[in-house]
Every structure is written in C-alpha cells, then in structure tokens.
Amino acid sequence: MREKAVRYLRCPHCAGSLRLDGRTLLCPERHSFDLARQGYANLLRRATRFHSDTPEMVDARADFLAAEHFRPLTDALAARAREAFEKTDGDGCVLDVGGGTGHYQAAVLDALPDGTEGVLLDISKPAVRRAARAHPRISAVVADAWDGLPLVDNAARLALNVFAPRDAAELARVLRPDGTLLAVVPRPEHLAELVTALDLLRVEEEKADRLADRLAPHLVPADRQEVTATLTLDHTAVRQVVAMGPNSWHQEPARLAARVAELPPTVTTTLAVTLAAFRPAT
Description:
Blueprint: H1 3-6, E1 19-21, E2 24-26, E3 32-34, E4 41-42, H2 55-66, H3 71-86, E5 93-97, H4 103-111, E6 118-122, H5 125-131, E7 138-142, E8 156-162, H6 168-174, E9 175-186, H7 192-198, H8 207-215, E10 219-234, H9 235-243, H10 253-261, E11 266-280
Parallel strand pairs: 4-7, 5-6, 5-8, 6-7, 8-9
Antiparallel strand pairs: 1-2, 2-3, 9-11, 10-11
Helix pairs in contact: 2-9, 3-4
C-alpha cells in the first residue's frame, strides 16, 4: 500500500478518511485495517455472497496474460487510457474495479505520467496478492464492487473495468466530473471457436448495448471501439483461458482436459471485445 494512494481511500464502515499508521489504516472513528504481509488492504465491509476467483483461476489468468495472448486488448486499453487521462488535470488516481492480477492496470500505468497512482479493487484475495506486486504504483485492496467502493468522492481521473462487475452509481460517485470509465466486455464472437469445441458459456447478444443501459443514468456513453484479433493457442493456453474465467465454475476439470486433448496441437480462435468509454452524467 502506497502512502500517496491512501488519500483516495475511505473507511468502508463510516466513510471516514483513512491514514496510514505503520502497517495499519485508521479512520477517525477508530476503525482499523491491518495491511497484509504482501502489502494489500482488506476493506470488505462484510462477508460477501459472491464467489471470488480461486487460486487456480488466478494462476491460470496470470500465466495466460503473461504470455501476451491478449496483447491487442492490453495495447488498445493503454492507448485509450492515455487519451482519456490527457483530457483531465489535477489530482486523481487510476482505479481498476475488478482488476484481478493487475495486468491491465500495470500496462495503463506504464502508459501514463510517472507519479500517477493506481488503486485496484478485487474481491479475490489471491488476485489482490498478485496485483499488489504487479506494478510499483498499484495499491491493491480487497473490496466488493457491489457493496460500496471504499474510495472518496471524485477520487479517480480514470476508472478501468475489464470483464468485471460494476456499480454505475458508485463509479459515477468516485469519478471526477471530467473523468472517464473504460469498460471492456466480450462480443458474441469472443473465443467462439473454443465455445463450440468445448461447450463453453456463450456471450449474450448485444452485451455492449446493454452495458450502456445498465450504466444509465449515472454514466453516459462517450465512444467505443471494437478490438478483434486472431489467437493461436496451444493446449496449455486453451486450458488457461477456460480456467481463468467463469467457465471454470461450469467445467469438470477431468472432462475439460479430455476435450482439450482431442483438439489439434494448436487452435485458432478469436479475441473479440468492445472497449467502451463513459463519462459521469452532468
């Protein structure tokens, strides 16, 4: 946890400001949160009813993303983030809601001016442990995106939301008036070849359009772009891309391994996502 980032956080219980005292975050009402050995803070307000990513899912995601299979998405996100950031000035962090291992936020921070602080939220402790060491300027926090974001009002110049849940009202609250949300959602063609071959979960039609409906009236569309690329994956990468997301909850590991073994040594599939920008409604 970086001391410079603490000013963007608030107590999940009373919404008071936080300060760092040694390895403990404290608020004026004496709520306290000890930092984990890895440096992250747990700001969950209460036990969550949602499943969090398991260590196996997090490991699969970290390995898959480290191999740069989704490099076209990472590059597009970093470039669009730089454009959005340049349109704001003054104080504010880069927030990543549901940021997982920190892969995308690290790439975005590398594209932004030195000294830009990153705050990453995720409900999965294994993911946050990795995120805490993904980049020197990431401050990682365990938090539930559906139970109030532990950030002060107008904390973020930029917010990222990649394949993750989002609370529109809370995102609008923590974004500066001139801030931008960059949200990434899959299109129906995303990994379609694997969906057919392995009987994976299908992406709902017009997901990007429904995203705008769900963010209204708190956030309004600014622009969007489609990111499409052809991927060539070996069996290891296929297993990882299935295991790192929601399909892992619906696939018996032994059955998945057997199905993957029946595939050709390398498989061609499609990266197909929408990168959409939103701004707080005025």
